[in-house]
C-alpha cells in the first residue's frame, strides 16, 4: 500500500493553468484541517479515458476530480455511475470514487442556485442564456420553474435537444447568434472569453460565468446588477468539498473564505482591480 496518507484531488481540463480551483480548494483544506493537496492537471479532449485508466491502476489517495472544459460531457463516458441530474443536463463537473466505481455528478446546478440566492436574485420571469453547452444547461436547470420563459442564444442548433432535456417546467425558446439585444430580467452568459462581447446590456441582472479578466466587456457596459463567475465557482466548490471529503460544510462561512482566496489570487494575477 502507498505510504502517502495525504488526500489528493485535482481539476482536469484544457487549458487548465488559469483555473482558480486549486486556490479555492487548498484554502478550504487549510481551513478544515485536511492533510492533502488539490492540483490542476492538463487533460485535453479525448485523453480522459487514458487518464482514468491510469488512476484506476494506482494506489494514490484520490478523493475526487473537478471537470472543466472540454471534459464535462466526455466524463459521462468514463464514469461507472452517473447521477440523474448529470444525465438530465448531459454534463458533469465532479467525479468521486465510491465502492462501486467512479461516480459523476454536477455541482454547477447548485452553484447557480446558491450564487443567485447569495446575491438576492429571485424575482425574474424572463431569462436569456448565451450559449448552450454544459454550463448553459446547468444554468437552465437551476432556474427552471413554472411561469418562466428561457430564451437560449446559440451559434448552432446542434445542442437544442440536450437543452430541451435540461428544462422541464419553463417555456423554452431558441434564437440565433445574430441577435445582439439583451432584454430579459436575468441574462446568463456561459460562453468563453470574448465570445459575448458584441451583446448590449439592459437594466436586468447579468450573471457572467467568467471571472477573469474582470470585468468582461459585457459586464463593463452592463447597466444593471452584475454577478461574477467567481460566485459560481465558489458555490459549486462548496458542494464539491462536501462530496469529496464527506465533511459537513458551513456554506456561508466557507463561501466567504473561498471568495477572499479567489479575489486575492486574481489580484496577484492582475486580473482584478
Kindly describe this structure:
The strands form 2 sheets. Strands 2-1-3-5-6-4 form a 6-stranded mixed beta sheet. It has helices at 21-32, 48-56, 84-89, 108-118, 134-143, 160-166, 217-220, 229-245, 251-268, and strands spanning 7-13, 36-42, 62-67, 81-82, 94-98, 101-105, 126-130, 149-154, 171-176, 186-189, 205-208, 226-227. It is α/β, with parallel strands linked by helices. It is built from 9 helices and 12 strands. Helix 6 links the parallel strand 8 and strand 9. The chain has 2 domains: 7-107 and 237-268, Leucine Dehydrogenase, chain A, domain 1 (Rossmann fold), CATH 3.40.50; 110-230, Rossmann fold, CATH 3.40.50. Helix 4 crosses helix 5, helix 4 packs across helix 8 (229-245) and helix 8 (229-245) packs across helix 9. The model has no long low-confidence stretch (mean pLDDT 94).
Topology:
Layout: E1 7-13, H1 21-32, E2 36-42, H2 48-56, E3 62-67, E4 81-82, H3 84-89, E5 94-98, E6 101-105, H4 108-118, E7 126-130, H5 134-143, E8 149-154, H6 160-166, E9 171-176, E10 186-189, E11 205-208, H7 217-220, E12 226-227, H8 229-245, H9 251-268
Parallel strand pairs: 1-2, 1-3, 4-6, 7-8, 7-10, 8-9, 10-11, 11-12
Antiparallel strand pairs: 3-5, 5-6
Helix pairs in contact: 1-8, 1-9, 4-5, 4-8, 8-9
Amino acid at each position: 500500500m502507498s505510504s502517502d496518507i495525504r488526500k489528493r484531488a485535482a481539476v482536469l481540463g484544457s487549458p487548465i493553468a488559469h483555473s482558480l480551483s486549486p486556490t479555492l480548494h487548498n484554502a478550504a483544506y487549510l481551513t478544515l484541517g485536511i492533510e492533502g493537496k488539490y492540483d490542476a492537471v492538463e487533460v485535453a479532449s479525448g485523453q480522459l479515458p487514458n487518464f482514468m485508466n491510469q488512476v484506476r491502476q494506482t494506489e494514490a489517495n484520490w478523493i475526487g476530480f473537478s471537470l472543466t472544459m472540454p471534459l464535462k460531457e466526455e466524463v459521462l463516458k468514463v464514469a461507472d455511475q452517473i447521477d440523474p441530474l448529470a444525465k438530465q443536463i448531459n454534463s458533469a463537473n465532479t467525479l468521486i470514487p465510491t465502492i462501486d466505481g467512479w461516480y459523476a455528478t454536477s455541482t454547477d446546478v447548485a452553484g447557480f442556485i446558491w450564487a443567485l440566492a447569495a446575491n438576492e436574485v429571485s424575482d425574474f420571469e424572463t431569462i436569456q442564456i448565451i450559449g448552450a453547452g454544459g454550463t448553459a444547461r446547468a444554468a437552465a436547470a437551476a432556474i427552471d420553474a413554472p411561469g418562466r420563459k428561457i430564451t437560449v442564444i446559440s451559434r448552432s442548433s446542434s445542442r437544442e435537444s440536450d437543452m430541451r432535456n435540461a428544462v422541464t417546467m419553463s417555456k423554452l425558446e431558441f434564437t440565433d447568434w445574430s441577435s445582439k439585444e439583451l432584454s430579459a430580467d436575468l441574462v446568463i452568459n456561459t460562453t468563453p472569453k470574448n465570445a459575448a462581447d458584441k451583446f448590449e446590456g439592459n437594466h436586468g441582472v447579468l450573471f457572467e460565468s467568467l471571472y477573469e479578466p474582470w470585468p468582461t466587456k459585457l459586464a463593463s457596459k452592463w447597466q444593471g446588477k452584475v454577478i461574477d463567475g467567481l460566485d459560481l465557482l465558489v458555490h459549486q466548490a462548496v458542494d464539491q468539498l462536501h462530496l469529496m471529503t464527506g465533511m459537513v460544510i458551513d456554506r456561508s462561512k466557507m463561501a466567504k473564505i473561498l471568495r477572499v482566496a479567489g479575489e486575492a489570487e486574481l489580484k496577484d494575477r492582475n486580473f482584478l482591480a
